[in-house]
Amino acid sequence: MLGAGCARERSNPEQALPAKTEQARPIAQARPGVQANRISAGAWHSLLLGSDGTVWAWGDNTHGQLGSGTTLSRPIPVRVPGLSGVVAVAAGDHFSLALRSDGTVWAWGDNSAGQLGDNTTTDRSSPVQVPGLSDVTSLAAGDHFSLALRSDGTVWAWGDNGYGQLGDGSATSRPSPAPVPGLTEVVALAAGSFHAVAVRSDGMVWAWGDNSAGQLGDESVPFLASPGKVPSLSGVISVAAGDVHSLALGADGSVWAWGGNGDGQLGQSSTDAAFSPVKVPGLSNVTALTAGDVHSLALRSDGTVWAAGGNYSGQLGDGTTTRRLSFSPVSGLSGIVAVAAGRYHGLVLRSDGYLLSWGNDFQGQLGDGTAGAPSLSALQTFQPWIRGVLATGLYYSLALRSDGTVWAWGNNYYGQLGDGTTTQRVSPSQVPALSSVVALAAGSYHSLALRSDGTVWAWGNNYYYGQLGDGTTTPRLSPIQVPALTGVVAVAAGSTHSLALRSDGTVWAWGDNSSGQLGDGTTTHRPTPFQIPALTGVVALAAGGAHSLALRSDGTVWAWGHNAYGQLGDGTTTQHLTPSQVPALSGVMALAAGAYHSLVLRSDGTVWGWGYNAVGAVGDGTGTHRLAPVQVPALTGVVAVSAGGHHSMALRADGAVWAWGDNFYGQLGDGTTTRRLAPVQVPALTGVVALAAGAHHSMVLLSDGTLRAWGSNASGMLGRGHSDYESAPQLAVGLSQASSVSGGQGHSLALRSDGTVWAWGNNASGQLGDGTTTRRLAPVPVPGLTGVTALEAGAHHSLALRSDGSLWAWGDNQYGQFGDGTTTSSAVPVQVPTLAGVVTLAAGPYHTLALRSDGTVWAWGDNYYGQLGDGTTTSRRAPVQVSGLTGVVALAAARDHSLALLADGTVWAWGNGTQGQLGDGFYTYSRRTPLQVPGITGVVAIAAGQQHSLALRSNGTVWAWGNNFFGQIGDGTDTQRRTPVQVPGLSNVTALSAAALHSLALRSDGTLWAWGGNGSLNTPRLVLDGVTGMAATESHALAVGGPDGHVHAWGDNTHGQLGNLQAGYYPTPGEVLLP
């Protein structure tokens, strides 16, 4: 069991394996990066432990509690550098703790009371090891004190002791760990503001410290300087502690609470304090607890989160600021596996790796890229997709995904894409056999990857200089390990040289040394890594064309190598063969190096530059080379910088990007090719979380996990699937992972394998579900919709089925096709009420069908021709059961008629039959109840076009009936068919799809065949191979296939439904740029 909660998440040191947020309703934060694993919340900051052992932090950084080496606050998660192999984290008031797999403890942030345990009271902005402490298994952090549980069951404490919270019998603070006397066999800990709680192996609870509100479970004393047993409490497995209240979780899933209750945080339906433990009513099957200052969170076994107490910052996540005296569920949360409560905010971790947050966001502790107003509901903060790690080479690009895989595209002349070939790639392809990667770097034609085990891997060009570090000058088409190099925490790649930073703060270099860029005092090339002498305490690196930069822990910058344009910043143009300090520059927190210029980001959010400036790369408004650092004017609040060949980029805390310098290829993204001597904002680009500037192109990662790229595309390095230049940001191709597609009259939908829905095209009725009515020429995510298993698109509305059996709809609802009892359209998904247990669905243009797990069919929407099958022609705003139909396994819905496939292989039809589409041999105007289609059995799949129907039999043959004016029956004629006929020449079919005037069939060999309205084809023709799924719509078609789930589209693109930026008609399949 992991901790429990800690006020400021103190009660529950790391997440009470569910966590908390501070916004009155959970916000899912899309933070690219590693898979989230554990969480912890401090007073105004938050911590996340990645599955790869890295730590990420965001929020207030006044005391250095983010561990970034600075005191610059961050509203989005940033990695704590130099810290790996971590297995647990805990956030105190303004400090942080981390437990590594070797049992050592590391601390950083506020140290005014000695709570960092390093025997000083000096604040630390980078992690320092707590000396004399080993074999630790868990941690807890209070306001200004720390607790550690060792493997022998003893508890160690340090920091503030004004209330006896160190448990040593005194009120003397301690700047280094000391054991809590007389306390053994402890299995769980929690730390409140000024008190501590521990669980022993016998299930008994002990507490000490402040008792001003009865939080120790004993009203007889104001405080206890030594542990005292909490009476009347047994069978406990974990605890949590808030400001002045305590919580305990029983082995039976029950919750017990005691202490202060001024805001109802004990969940007792009152505000009366409890001086001994009382059982929380109505709360069972709880698996984890956590406590904020005046609120409490509980995680239940069903993945829901329940909250009680103060809510003035929305910390209960229920969409209000009303306090709750009893526990109630946090709205919109399911599948939660961990919780953490900060002072007034909450964090939760969902089973799909998403982190959600809510409540107070004054210091950006929710991690959504903003700071200020609280969020009353959950926000998504961290998305397990792309890590936020990008790298750009001379004519190629690299991206790191959250699963630790590397993707590459662009020029591959020297094998720098690492795919074993020298074939250029115009869309992302995975670098094979390379996993668990945490960082990337790209030189002119070589690539570096850092794995979580501290090893470095290299591939690409190696001629002459040995920049791959393997002791040879042989290029490598696939990654190879750089030998004898371990414990690495960062890498950098210059044009033809490489750098690595080890965890001990030393720097290692190899490759080209023509200008002294390896820093060894010579100009001798090195094909294997060696340590740069006299350079220690380094926390970050950057490599330019032929110069190198290092940032030391004291905030100073050191430079060496080529200096013809002053890029070393020492006021001269003399090259340096060994590192020398850049004078008059301090408080630096990040570095970037271009071909011949350098940039730094200072802790005050300002950017400084020097070196080559003929085209404005320094950004000071002149074209004059700068031999010493100058501030980039009018640019503040910056959180990241990147330097390209001769252009520069800066990311501000608000997610906006600014660029300056060379723009010959449109690499500034402002829609022009005009060079800029001072920063200009890249228009229409928000929510950016990471950036990378290449020699002639630029790339950014957005909070939704998508990539945008612009500039030179000569080798396809923008990942757009072509090689045309782009002077404004464009969505990169690939990394799509689509599993199914569907299309409406002018819009398209794609379901990704992670259960998210993406939409594009016409949006006049809100059918894209993104909260707007703005058409989208490229896919956008449907927000707040996860765990989706199936999609359907009507003419102007969309449907999604979630894994919990719930059905959601959005877009046009004029005929009641949502089934929500109204005819009110919606630009965001709304749940279809009173209909649960749905297993599949079908959407006609204006009506909807749903199959429930009991084999019954339900219908709603337009019913002019009886297509709802309820015996009437009355349109329905809510689901009604289709009469006399059971044992159904599949459905199909067309404009005015409906089909059902039964488990016995028979097909049933109802609705309009004026073109013979009901297959009963008649031209029936309106059939109001289902009728079996005669003469066809053994059917395994069905599809319905506007006025025709298709059936796939178990022998792989296709049968069709209805309107055939455009050849949509596929029998070689244009003769209408009132009963099923076989489509000749088509066998081994596995799936069907039908649209208004055309039909599609997918064969077992992955080939896709089409016939019908196309000008027209009355027999099947081959369209595409490698297909796994498809959808036919009124005027366009979609297909998904390949190992990466890429989507292809063709036909009408009037509304952008092909995901193509150019309107028109496309007679051949083109790839949809789905991120």
TrEMBL record:
GO terms for cellular component: cytoplasm. Residues 1-33 are annotated as: Disordered. The keyword Transport does not apply. Residues 18-220, 229-532, 788-1061 form the RCC1-like domain. It comes from the Bacteria. It comes from Archangium gephyra. Gene3D superfamilies: Regulator of chromosome condensation 1/beta-lactamase-inhibitor protein II. InterPro entries: Ran_GTPase-activating (IPR051553), RCC1-like_dom (IPR058923), RCC1/BLIP-II (IPR009091), Reg_chr_condens (IPR000408). This is BNR repeat domain protein. SUPFAM superfamilies: RCC1/BLIP-II. PROSITE patterns: RCC1_2, RCC1_3. Transmembrane segments: none annotated. One of its GO terms (molecular function) is guanyl-nucleotide exchange factor activity. It holds the Pfam family RCC1. Keywords: Guanine-nucleotide releasing factor, Repeat.
